[in-house]
């Protein structure tokens, strides 16, 4: 259960991350042409997008919504910290591939030109790296131990 997480990772995983997933969902579904053209920062006219590319962008947006829903379901309903930790391990692995695929997609030179990154690249690389590092620090115990489990029927020790 997310309430057992230390304060900082609990806030990051139960508030910031769900908001970031919705921030990926809405533009991909509502503005797929813009979403596609922002994936790689370019100077000049926006990149043309095909119906095929727009469909894929909307499907990706749907995946962001699915990730949001699964996260909310896991973090707000389970009573098992083991389930929360396993969910976070899965996200930790996905963070690695997400950043790696993004950097591969934008290429070596643009990967190093951090000052030229647009908001989309900062979201895909910067925000995901922040989530990865927060998960890594949590797994390493840098935020302290998970809190005690209290079910609604248990009395707290006085």
From TrEMBL:
The chain crosses the membrane at residues 12-36, 56-76, 88-107, 119-143. It holds the Pfam family DUF7704. Residues 2-145 form the DUF7704 domain. InterPro entries: DUF7704. The keyword Hydrolase does not apply. Keywords: Membrane, Transmembrane, Transmembrane helix. This is DUF7704 domain-containing protein. It comes from Lasiosphaeris hirsuta.
